[in-house]
């Protein structure tokens, strides 16, 4: 496997693919047509050099990924909002109203993001600590309670994924997520990017965001074993303050996994790949077609395969 450094995510009835600073969103519209939008992403980080420093870049790349992910998800949803919205009369008042609505939507989105981050920290970082602390009378060892806390955290994450996967819209999103992975795997294994080749490719990939989240949860266990404070308040604070450090280390492990075939890296990647069986589903051919168009808008896979696989690809 040869890493292409292309990544993406599933959106509403579509796929976003990103390569370097370019990204494309391909959406299957309600009328069945595939609409593709290509653009250049401008980082929200003031000093772009921060996104290139090892063990620091992971924090800022995660922020950029989250911002771009929300933007493209919101964009894809607009195609389906149009179906139920009233037609515009085209006058200036309608334009002003649309502008005000856009501003309101941005504020609501910002509030939603902040709430989501706070809720995630509370559910996945703080709650497991309090649950494990209840075991103190039975398990006096701080080390063993920390290990149990880590496994409780992973368990909560898996239960969360299982619960949301029961929603119909999420099931379709997971199918598009599978199509995204299959396209990247198809390219990185030197196969021409066709529906037939994508269909038989794996829906699991080492560089997936699901694997990143697992590394965050697992590496958090290890770091907390070495940082011990007595005050319960400080223990909670340490878990929150350490998040950027954990994210930075996890990003480097994920990058290494994407370009390494070593046995150790394969073993470290297996839990994340196993969880991907929950966050990806087998797509249908129409979803694969959307994913292919998103890839081809930002990435010359023919040139990539010619450079890395020579004549093995049918170009």
Structural overview:
The chain has helices at residues 57-81, 92-133, 142-164, 168-188, 195-199, 209-226, 232-241, 243-259, 263-279, 285-298, 301-309, and strands spanning 6-11, 14-19, 22-28, 34-40. The chain is an alpha+beta fold and 315 residues long. A four-stranded antiparallel sheet has the order 1-2-3-4. Helix 2 (92-133) runs antiparallel to helix 3. The longest helix has 42 residues, at 92-133. The mean pLDDT is 87.
Walk me through the topology.
Blueprint: E1 6-11, E2 14-19, E3 22-28, E4 34-40, H1 57-81, H2 92-133, H3 142-164, H4 168-188, H5 195-199, H6 209-226, H7 232-241, H8 243-259, H9 263-279, H10 285-298, H11 301-309
Mean pLDDT: 87
Please estimate the helix content: 55-70%
Fraction in beta strands: 5-15%
CA(first)-CA(last) distance = 18 Å
Which structural class is indicated by helix and strand composition? alpha+beta
Number of distinct beta strands? 4
What assembly state would you assign to the polypeptide chains in this entry? Answer: single chain
Rg on CA atoms, Å: 21 Å
Core attributes:
four-stranded antiparallel sheet; alpha+beta; 315 residues; globular; 64% helix
Please provide a brief summary of the model.
Helices cover 64% and strands 8% of the residues. The chain is an alpha+beta fold and 315 residues long. The mean pLDDT is 87.
